[in-house]
Amino acid sequence: MPSTRDWINNPLGVVEGMFAASQSDPNSGWEAKAVEFFKDHLKEKDAPTSVPSLNDVPLHYLKPNSLVKFRCLIQDMFDPEFYMGVYETVDPATKAKVLRCGKYKDVTECGVDFNSRNTVTAERQTFYCVPIPGENPWVKESYAGSSQARVVPSTSYAPTRQKRSYEEDDEMDDMDTQPQKQREPHPGPQSPTEQHGNGDCKRQETEAPSSQTASTSHLDLNFPLPGEKGPSCLVKVYENWDNFKLNDTLEVYGILSVSPALSALADEKDASSSIMDPTESMETAEEQRVHCPPASLVPRLHMLHARPVSHNNPLLPSATLEDNSAFLSSTLSEMASVRAELLTYFTHILLGDALAAEYLILHLISNVYSRRDVLPLGKFTLNLSGCPTASYTERLYQIIQQLVPSSYYLGMSLQNMNQMRLVPKKDYVANRLASGVLQLARHTSLFLDEIQLEQGQLDTTGVRNVTALGNLITWQKVDYDFNYHQMEFPCNINVLIVSEGRSLLPSDCQIHLQSQVTPANMEEYLSSIHMHTQTSSQLNKFRIYLSVARLLDYNISDEMTKSVEDDFVDMRKDDPQSVSAEDLHRMLVVARLLSLSLGQTSLSRDSWLRAKHIDMLRRSRMEQHKCVNGNEP
Amino acid sequence: MSSPTSTPGGCKRGRNTNPATPSSEGPTSPPSQRRRGQDSSTGDLMPMPTSPATDILSPAAPQDTSLFSSPRPSVQPNEVDMSSPLMYGTPMRGTPARQRPDLGSVRKAPQVDLHSEPPSTDGAVASESNAGQRLVIWGTDVNVATCKEKFQRFLQRFIDPTSNEDENAGLDLNEPLYMQKLEEISVVGDPVLSVNCLHVQSFDAELYRQLVCYPQEVIPTFDMAVNELFFERFPDSILEFQIQVRPYNALKTRNMRSLNPEDIDQLITISGMVIRTSQLIPEMQEAFFQCQVCAYSTRVEVDRGRIAEPAVCRHCNTTHSLALVHNRSVFSDKQMVKIQESPEDMPAGQTPHTTIVYAHNDLVDKVQPGDRINITGIYRAVPMRVSPIQSNVKSVYKTHIDAIHFRKTDEKRLHGVDDDADQKLFTEDRVQTLKELAAKPDVYERLSSALAPSIYEHEDIKKGILLQLFGGSRKDFTQTGRGNFRAEVNILLCGDPGTSKSQLLQYVFNLVPRGQYTSGKGSSAVGLTAYVMKDPETRQLVLQTGALVLSDNGICCIDEFDKMSDSTRSVLHEVMEQQTLSIAKAGIICQLNARTAVLAAANPIESQWNPKKTTIENIQLPHTLLSRFDLIFLMLDPQDEAYDRRLAHHLVSLYYQSEEQMEEEFLDMAVLRDYIAYARTYINPRLSEEASQALIEAYVDMRKIGSGRGMVSAYPRQLESLIRLAEAHAKVRFSEKVETIDVEEAKRLHREALKQSATDPRTGFVDIAILTTGMSATARKRKEEAAQALKKLIQAKGKTPAMKYHQLLDDLRGQSETAITKELFDEALRALADEDYLTVTGKTVRLLA
């Protein structure tokens, strides 16, 4: 299908064609038409998958000035820039003047006539985008597998590279001590397009350039999480940039620009006389490096269309659930059964504690669905206390990692708390927002391992980090540090705290793990958890289940409202001290999550009673531990 | 002309007065895309080929045109400069003109007699027959002579009787303002005249439009005009250089976000915060060359950022013999300043933008990082080049602002009293909606229910906080020696844990623009006040301000007030009454303003409120501090069924109502914020006659309540609180007058708060003494009675010099009708000991004398 290839391989040709056609008619609104054109093409079936993605195709495989897509998070927003929207070039030989379009390009053609009256100055905005932080390997692989874009290695690609990339890949793996090292034993059931021939080797090469970046580059690509890989990108936005917010996740469709001329700028700066041009001498070297990094490392992407990513689970259709009723109804009908399976699975993992397993499911599908002034609604931070050993929590994380699209493991060791930069901070020298661990996309699971915390002193950074975590949990917001002031960014992160006793951080709900396993058998049991891998089809079922449950709508009927109110009043009547407004808040959230976990979109009497019941079980368990623990205030 | 910096804006230009251009205008280019500079490059199409107007335009970009060494138009620069109408470099009795790099001009101009009309067609295009008067500067509709005349008229006539700017302090408001300023210049010798653009606009809108659209041409004209006027009036004054006009406060004030290509080369005023300043950059203005052979020297001016080195010595005709002598060249100062959007102007969820500003000459080092400033300047854009060798250009312009005027917005917070500097600008529509809202009879209830809708009930507390947000009127008694009266309302919330106190605090902190949130547990005295630190770069000592100073004119929310250490709390004494902060450390002694309202939350000491104890006993705060709170509220869990039901309903609806339903019910947070900001800046209610009477009555009543039982139930501090609350309530109504209803509500609220916090648990009466002395008057009375009874008992016992403690207690208990606790007994003993009647040693009581 040559036409398809054309708009993917040479989108600038399309744009220029429209521009040229518009010259006779000044009011044609060609710019809107061009954007419409691409949007329409992307709506076609399979169209999105045939566009190569920067996430899984190495940059040197992609054709410059072709249409690519990029699944990313807006990490920083730079200042808007003015560029030549339309300009005129003069051929030095013939003196012929040609009008050209400067949109979607970084560099102009030769022989610009700066005095031309036809020059139009226009404005665009630059975003610094990074791949979604904490995206788990299974998501990446699945996305890469479903891509239909055939990537042809460019001729300039030296085959010797491949060899090196293998070695480096291995090295990286060895160095990587993070638990995410554990990969799926086999790629899993992916769409039939996987049989592409070069599927396997493609994936390895995906990582080649990034590992090079990590080892050779002096450039800090500013990923929120340490040890992240992948390309980052400067995305140029041409319209409605006010609609985008920091930390939004997008799928950007745009024109890739890797003009070497861009990198030339930085190098020649020092050589050429900077004295002559005071405007350029005044930018610091750091700022230059950040705002104009070499295009080979940080490509430019001129946005044609961006689709907000509501979830990054490759197993779900990318469209919203409402638009895909067939998928929705088929999953909904299965939900109860999948939930039962998942509950068994979690019970097994949580040392036979079914109640804790129930709460873990509720936690994993929680979501801040709304905010009432400062109060975030729907958050459900779980504190899983009574975890046996450190190795157990790491295993637990590995299992969660297999189930959720993005997650991050933060060991709360003293050293980590005192040294890590959790909160993003504005670096005024380089004029950018230096990222921190808490700059995460929504729905990311943050796993806080408090077992790693030992006695000792927290220094200033440590205290600030703990406060930031506390704020994140209570208000679901992070105060970014802008040196002269702080700025609040709302977030939507699922925080799971595992600890021995009650956590020092606040949480919405604490549950003490009651192990059904005798300590003697613990070792053996733990290793058996590790061995017990689910079949991948079952894993996929779980993955779909967790993502869908989180995206469902929910409401409470008037009738139920009434009965909940009555219940609350009754409970207060019996024992006013034990039930407070806070408890009602929590029970309402539990009831909501419980209904959703069963695929019910409205609260039923049964769910409410069940919510009350499990909350009571949990509280009675806490009562028992109160005396044992002594950690209570 | 090849300057790309002088860009668009052509659409607004009065083209019809200028017949020269339309001929060369392509039909396809909308006027807005036309750039002024390019017109001159096609100068051969002009009726006046040797138009010297090029030179008026050439100043546009002295430093950046170096990039484009395109041949200049066929005009010889030297001839041109001679006759430019803007070359006003006439030495006014020996006063040299100073270059204005801020306008981008290189203006070491050949001298020209300004009074003899320049050759009539030069620099201007004659339109129609009437030459002299219809001359305009090329590319604009500015006629130099008219413009000059208008401005002189403005200077001579402009009077602003209502002015309340601090710059005009000490000037006679009924005399022409700027003439007085000129007089000041002649005395002080600082040749800078700052002109408020709003004044120009109110005087002559057309002149203002020209100023904003063509600052590069109009400001030199203004300079010219003002110098003529000045030296005419003060012929004997000696200035360092000629007066320069610095316009500020251009109405096109915008925030950084709204700058767009239309603004290039126009006069703009934006606000922001300085985040970085560069080192001083010397920029060469004039190069000095000396011949190595014959020592002949010559000077070359910078022409568009370039210096043309003379190839041949004019004296001895040796080629390439001239060498640059740096220390005899002329440089001007330049500094790069980076400013960032102030946090208030930013939409949520976005990062702040930054802009580069160039400061020239005396504006260098005027601002420091961290300053909040308003900058008036000219917006510029310069294209970037990828490499000097290749000719393709990065299709991006670099933008910056050439600063003409800096105005610090936070300066006055340190010195002055009025705070109109951070006035928020409201659009007409907005003001209209706000006024409509204010006209509603139930506006007070509406606003208070809009406050923190997610928190259930506590209506009176919300009302109290609402009044705190508005604050009272500021009164100044410095003349009579009492200093400022506090206008801010302080509120303390105490109560059981988990009654959403923190949530209320968070809400308030999010609502007010200058709010600070601290927790008593984590903050030290230093963090609240100010500390001195050494700047790592400059090794200077810098005063860093803490939460209380930062929330000047705002609200400081302090959570866990009871957990604060005593030393920390002690700094609050000064802040909460005098509204200042005195610092004496590390060689810095100063008093900072901290006119902040304090909203504090405290938990009872026993984690659960004990209704049998007084407020003081429950929260263990010193009463000296408590009496500084205007309102002290208890947030208790009421524990009754009806309340529970309403609470449950509220919470459940929180979870199931959709966003839209909620919005219908409550006011938007933004409206509330604007409403408060508007009332705070524009409404300053004063007490009416009836209101004062009502206040007096209220106060007398309050004192009467207690006097019947021999206690004082009100102190002047309570009267002041009442006044403040009444004023705040008047502000809520947008009323300039405090009326009786305001006093009524203030009384009611005050009583409510007292009822909650100052009720003596023993008697059930409201007793202000609990808050002011830490002990209720009844308790004191009982103590005295016990002491008297004890004395009688001892006297009755006759001549026993020593008694057993327990014996005495039992005797007293047996005798007294009321219950005597051990504490009471101890206090009675202590009271008698104070009278030197007896002493207590261990378990024996001895009589003295």
Automatic annotation (TrEMBL), chain B:
Record organism: Dicentrarchus labrax (European seabass)
Cell compartments where the protein resides: Nucleus
Membership in a protein family: Belongs to the MCM family.
Biased segments, Polar residues type: 63-77
InterPro entries from the UniProt entry: AAA+_ATPase, MCM, MCM_4, MCM_CS, MCM_dom, MCM_lid, MCM_N, MCM_OB
Ranges for domain MCM C-terminal AAA(+) ATPase: 443-651
EC number: 3.6.4.12
Annotated stretches, region: Disordered: 1-128
Entry GO CC: MCM complex; nucleus
Subunit structure: Component of the MCM2-7 complex.
Taxonomy, superkingdom: Eukaryota
Lineage: Eukaryota, Metazoa, Chordata, Craniata, Vertebrata
Protein name: DNA replication licensing factor MCM4
Chief localisation class: nucleus
Entry-linked Pfam families: MCM, MCM_lid, MCM_N, MCM_OB, WHD_MCM4
GO molecular function: ATP binding; hydrolase activity; single-stranded DNA binding; single-stranded DNA helicase activity
Role this protein plays: Acts as a component of the MCM2-7 complex (MCM complex) which is the replicative helicase essential for 'once per cell cycle' DNA replication initiation and elongation in eukaryotic cells. Core component of CDC45-MCM-GINS (CMG) helicase, the molecular machine that unwinds template DNA during replication, and around which the replisome is built. Acts as component of the MCM2-7 complex (MCM complex) which is the replicative helicase essential for 'once per cell cycle' DNA replication initiation and elongation in eukaryotic cells. The active ATPase sites in the MCM2-7 ring are formed through the interaction surfaces of two neighboring subunits such that a critical structure of a conserved arginine finger motif is provided in trans relative to the ATP-binding site of the Walker A box of the adjacent subunit. The six ATPase active sites, however, are likely to contribute differentially to the complex helicase activity.
Keyword check for Nucleotide-binding: yes
